[in-house]
Design brief:
The complex is a heterodimer of chains A (228) and B (948). The longest helix of chain A is centred in the last third of the chain and has 29 residues. Chain A has 11 helices and 1 strand, in the order H-H-H-H-H-H-E-H-H-H-H-H. With 228 residues, chain A is mainly α. Chain B is built from 27 helices and 46 strands. The chains are: A mainly alpha (228), B alpha/beta (948). At the A-B interface, helix 1, helix 2, helix 4, helix 6 and strand 1 of A face helix 2, strand 1, helix 4, strand 6 and strand 39 of B.
């Protein structure tokens, strides 16, 4: 797998995860789920299978409607949904807290903004995934050293997703009425955990790089600039 | 891996050699990141911008309770970091309570409504689907259009609830063509206000304890006055230390007492206010009017102008009143009548003692003290007098007592706050649309009238229901409206749409079962009330019965104006503090967007020149609402602006009036300074403060009666230009009744054929001590039920954890059992477990309880914490834990108003104790609507108590 391919695939994975949590589900997204083939040995495979089991070959309006009604109950409201997709909720008990400010500050340092057009708190799960996708593969990032971006991704996941994602996905799974969202819970956790594990040695390498070693052609940028 | 860890190979080789988990995801790329570099232009509104280190303070107004205090909110990085009181707003003078300080926990609460929703299940199930604003508003606009075409715009009710910034809602729906634009006041305390309304054209009488007040000094300067001149304050069923609307009353009462005032509290329960009083009189519920009547009789019988110790009456009131002789005659006529329950003459001390359960000497002392300790204020409250069937009589007698003793609008006395507060609304209220001409077909003939003539109360069953009759809606929803009076008499229409904003009538608008039944009754396969729209920030019970749920921006995310019952003209801004969260919209945005949808559907009454062309921005709209401020008569001593003519209306900023930048219109009698604007308020600490004065009833002043005097008669004749004219607050209703030849049902129940022209008397209902019709129930139902306000009353703030733990008197106390439970959320078929375990330790969470005297509890074999059922003769029932205490009169039980039995999971832990907390509204007799204003008689209740 080439660096470019990894970049694209990681960007795509987080783009898809973002789409799952960015209401509403669409036919395009569900068809993408149907067509996804990660191989039997992928740690995501069983969860993907659960999601695909819920989807008939022909995704009708009724199927889409049912899933969006279920998504509303689980993730949207009215009032408190079953599984608020918010870091702050699980860490601080409200929809805006210290982590919201920290995440927003990270976006600011990276010079990015969400384009949703609404004032969703920055630590909403869809935005967290969207930022990881942007970090991985957006053309605006090409000038920033890739290793720094991977280190940043790892740090972002470690700080802003790992502390609460397991609790969230457990709540989502327990609250889900069908296999789609139950599968999505496992799929989400497994995706992030696997990516985190994969990123860790690379990030460690970036952190321990020898900046005086001109032989390391991929480690030229002072990552501290983009990680503070 | 060794190579990687020792950093001896390039990362490229590692990547090439590894298997990224993301492999195979290429298909997902089409969904994008949803992010954009900030150097690129952003579509739509900017997202939450957070700049490191950015800190500001914004002046605004609270809504954590109905006091709506002035606030100074610190914002760091776009997030609220602290909430303080605004030092420049004299209403709260820099103070902020626990509720106000915890506002961020409300604004950022997980329970708040975040997105528009459409119902997809049955009403009450709570099954919704998130939709876009366009979908939601299209749905509403199409329904409204169809209803208007089929039934008329009057079939739509716009209930703008409790928060006072209701102008955009009323404006829009009045323009749409319905006169049925209502608000919370109708289910709050209308009987309480009745005396001031009839006699002053006012509303709420409060003690003169708002400090500081800005006062013109003898040298012409303006200075803040911090002095308390009160010598006596009597609070009857009024508890300003617990969640009233009047912030300054709690601290002002303490300050007045420290300055030498006596405080007397009349209340069946030992309230927080009673704990600060010199004397507590535990009166029997529903007998305040008896007490006031006895006080008035005592004063009239014992007044001696020549004796300084019993010179109770200040006869100067005759100079600015009319009709006292008629009133006194009607009152004294009762003295010779004998009460069928106790056999004693009305209003005698012994008679009052029998009825009130107080000692006759205490009543005489109270009357003597009130007549001789001046300045004094007699104040009565909403949960007592306001919530009884005959509260009007108490309000009238109390008002008369304040007037004849010379205590109205004197320093340290009593003030009608409605008469002296600033105008805030002007044309932004939409009153101009009510005069629009319409035609309705009645018995086959086209009959002309105006929009106003269609009003369901004023021309229906409740001609004097000035603040509308929300408590009667359950019936109206089922039976429709028949106009009995006015030019459109005979016109019938159904109620097909109910728009409710910041209100929760399913819990608080009389009996919850009646409301639920009304909102779920079907006409064929459709609901009889075709459209229910719930607009709010928190998700309360009424939202479960809505077809559409709309997220209104929280009070820190929207703009409007505030001023709650100040002693003089003070007006402050509610400003944008933080960006609107999620997809919430301000009231202006919601209504303008709906207006545009209606316009696009061809509604002929929605005109661009009234909406987006007239007020293209939110600030434009609120500037319109400010145009007439302060708008009150220039009156009193010391005169606020000595150079301007008395009784002219003052308009304009305090500085322009002070500095003479005005024009004076002698024809209209207006002194017009530079209009107050949002920007002016922002530049002046968020608030406009005009000078205070007293004696504002003299020479007409601020009074709003026909005669510009205090009126003791309410239907009288005057001769003008050779013509006899009928005047007085009731006269216009009586004319309608006479024209129609029938009295409304509520008056017929009293045996009246019209509204009385002066003092009247009738009994409360479910009280065997005063009403012979209910003596038969006394043995089986020995308790009288009352309610008390807690800090969550009128606000739905139970969802704020911090506030949920705080105790309020003996009503809302940490008597919870230990509980481990799955957090409940709305499921497909009602609430269901979320999978998230919550643990509440015993005694760690406050719940609503039934406050009962220890003696009564022991007699029933009860201990504190026992679960009991409370049942009424009309079949009302609720249950809860008893709290046996000495702080309530024996024979009376008290429950929190709107505290228990809450069935919306949106209230957090309060919901978990719904089965063991009492809902006093469930006991309400749905037919017991007080006969003049239609207010539910919430605590006209007899009950029995049994262990569960």
């Amino acid at each position: 797998m080439t660096v470019e391919a990894v970049r694209t695939e990681r960007g795509a994975m987080y783009a898809m995860l973002r789409a799952f949590y960015d209401y509403p589900l669409t036919v395009d997204l569900l068809e993408a789920v149907q067509s996804l083939d990660l191989g039997d040995d992928s740690p995501l495979a069983p969860y993907l299978g659960e999601m695909q089991d819920r989807l008939p070959s022909n995704i009708t309006d009724d199927v889409l409607e049912d899933l969006n009604v279920e998504m509303t109950r689980l993730l949207e409201g009215p009032g408190q949904p079953a599984a608020p997709p918010s870091a702050s909720y699980y860490l601080h008990g409200s929809m805006v807290g210290p982590i919201t400010i920290q995440v927003a500050e990270t976006y600011r340092l990276w010079g990015v903004e969400a384009v949703s057009g609404i004032q969703t708190p920055p630590d909403h799960l869809a935005l967290l995934f969207g930022f990881l996708s942007f970090l991985a593969d957006d053309p605006a990032m090409v000038d920033i050293d890739e290793s720094c971006r991977m280190l940043a991704s790892r740090e972002f996941i470690r700080r802003y997703l790992m502390p609460w994602l397991e609790k969230f996905t457990k709540t989502l799974k327990n609250s889900a009425h069908g296999s789609f969202f139950s599968g999505l819970a496992g799929f989400t956790l497994a995706s992030v955990q696997a990516d985190y594990e994969w990123l860790t040695p690379i990030a460690d390498m970036a952190e321990t790089r020898d900046t005086n070693n001109d032989d390391d052609e991929y480690m030229r940028i002072d990552c501290d600039e983009v990680l503070k | 891996m060794t190579n990687i860890l020792t950093n001896k190979v390039s990362r490229r080789s590692f990547i090439q050699g590894s298997g990224a988990v993301a492999a195979g995801f290429a298909v997902g790329g089409v969904f994008g990141s949803g992010f954009i570099s900030r150097t690129s232009p952003l579509p739509g509104a900017a997202s939450l911008r957070v700049a490191a280190g950015e800190r500001t303070t914004v002046y605004t107004a609270c809504v954590m309770c109905p006091s709506e205090c002035g606030l100074a909110v610190d914002v760091e990085g776009g997030v609220v970091s602290a909430i303080y009181g605004n030092n420049f707003v004299p209403f709260n003078a820099g103070t902020v309570c626990a509720k106000g300080a915890s506002g961020a926990q409300f604004v950022y609460n997980a329970n708040r409504i975040k997105y528009p929703m459409l119902r997809v299940g049955d009403r009450g199930e709570g099954k919704f689907k998130r939709v876009s604003w366009d979908e939601a508003l299209d749905f509403i606009a199409e329904k409204l259009t169809a209803i208007k075409q089929q039934h008329g715009a009057e079939s739509v009710i716009m209930d703008a609830g409790d928060v006072t910034d209701r102008n955009p809602y009323w404006y829009t729906f009045r323009a749409f063509g319905t006169p049925n634009t209502v608000e919370h006041g109708s289910i709050c305390d209308t009987p309480r206000r009745h005396g001031a309304k009839l006699m002053f054209g006012g509303k709420r009488i409060e003690p003169d304890v708002m400090r500081p007040v800005l006062v013109r000094q003898p040298d012409g300067s303006l200075k803040n006055d911090y002095s308390y001149r009160n010598r006596l304050i009597i609070y009857a069923g009024w508890n300003p230390f617990t969640a009233t609307r009047i912030n300054y009353e709690s601290r002002g009462t303490v300050e007045a007492k420290l300055a030498g005032a006596k405080i007397v509290v009349i209340d069946p329960a030992f309230s927080n206010t009673a704990s600060k009083a010199d004397k507590w009189l535990p009166i029997r519920p529903g007998t305040d009017a008896d007490l006031f009547g006895a006080m008035l009789r005592f004063i009239l019988e014992n007044n001696n102008d020549d004796d300084p110790f019993s010179s109770y009456i200040d006869w100067s009131f005759l100079d600015y009143s009319q009709g006292w002789d008629e009133f006194e005659a009607a009152f004294t006529e009762w003295w010779s009548k004998t009460d069928p329950v106790n056999g004693l003459p009305y209003f005698s001390l012994d008679w009052a003692a029998q009825r009130t359960g107080l000692d006759a000497d205490d009543i005489a002392d109270l009357a003597h003290m009130f007549g001789s300790l001046k300045p004094a204020a007699l104040i009565w409250g909403m949960n007592g007098i306001g919530h009884h069937y005959n509260g009007y009589t108490a309000a009238i007698l109390g008002t008369a007592l304040n007037v004849i003793t010379g205590n109205m609008d004197v320093p340290g006395g009593a003030i009608d706050t409605e008469l002296v507060k600033s105008d805030k609304g002007g044309n932004a209220k939409g009153g101009q649309f009510l005069g629009r001409e319409i035609t309705r077909s009645i018995n086959g003939a086209d009959v002309p009238g105006s929009v106003e003539d269609l009003h369901m109360d004023a021309f229906g069953d409740w001609p004097a229901g000035w603040d509308d009759v929300v408590g009667d809606y359950p019936r109206r929803f089922k039976e429709g409206v028949k106009l009995r009076y006015g030019p459109l008499r005979g016109h019938k229409y159904p109620i097909k749409a109910f728009m409710i904003r910041t209100g929760n009538p399913v819990i608080t608008g009389s009996n919850p079962d009646a409301w639920k039944d009304a909102l779920t009754t079907k006409d064929g396969s459709d609901y009889a009330v075709d459209l229910v729209v719930y607009i709010d920030t928190p998700f309360l019970e009424t939202g479960l019965y809505a077809d559409v749920v709309l997220p209104e921006a929280s009070y820190l995310e929207r703009m409007s104006l505030s001023d709650i019952y100040p002693s003089h003209q003070v007006l402050y801004l509610r400003d944008f503090v933080i960006p609107k969260l999620y997809e919430s919209k301000t009231h202006y945005e919601i209504m303008w967007a709906l207006a545009r949808k209606l316009y696009d559907l061809g509604d002929p009454d929605i005109k661009p020149e009234d909406f987006w062309e007239a007020y293209p921005t939110e600030e434009d709209f609120w500037n319109e609402a400010l145009k007439k401020a302060p708008g009150r008569a220039h009156a009193g001593t010391p005169l606020p602006y000595p150079d301007y003519p008395v009784n002219y209306k003052l308009r304009g900023t305090p500085d322009s009036l002070e500095e003479g930048r005005v024009t004076i219109d002698d024809d209209k009698k207006v002194v017009q300074g530079e209009p107050v604007t949002v920007q002016w308020l922002r530049e002046h600490n968020g608030v406009a403060v005009w000078p205070m004065s007293w004696h504002r009833f003299n020479d007409g002043g601020v009074l709003k009666t026909d005669s510009k005097k205090v009126e003791f008669v309410w239907d009288y004749e005057v001769e003008k230009d050779g013509e006899i004219q009928r005047k007085g607050r009731y006269s216009k209703y009586n004319k309608r009744l006479e024209e129609a030849g029938e009295a409304p049902p509520s008056l017929q129940r009293l045996g009246w054929d019209k509204y009385p022209s002066t003092f009247f008397w009738f009994e409360t209902l479910w009280n065997p001590h005063t009403n012979p019709d209910y003596v038969q129930y006394a043995d089986e139902y020995p308790f009288q039920v009352i309610s008390g306000r807690i800090h969550h009353a009128m606000s739905g703030t139970q969802m704020v954890e911090y506030l949920g733990r705080i105790q309020a008197e003996d009503l809302w106390v940490p008597m919870n059992d230990e509980l481990r439970y799955d957090r409940m959320v709305m499921g497909n078929n009602g609430p269901e477990p979320s999978g998230e375990e919550i643990h509440i330790q015993k005694g760690a969470w406050s719940i609503g309880v039934i406050q009962m005297n220890t003696v009564d509890g022991r007699a029933l074999g009860l201990e504190t914490g026992d679960l009991v059922r409370v049942t009424t003769p009309t079949g009302g029932t609720t249950r809860g834990k008893v709290n046996l205490v000495e702080t309530i009169r024996p024979g009376v039980i008290r429950m929190p108003f709107g505290g228990g039995g809450r069935f919306s999971p949106g209230l957090g832990k309060t919901y978990e104790y719904r089965d063991v907390t009492p809902n006093v509204s469930s006991l309400v007799d749905p037919t017991a609507l007080s006969p003049i204003m239609g207010m539910p008689a919430y605590i006209d209740i007899m009950a029995k108590v049994e262990r569960v």
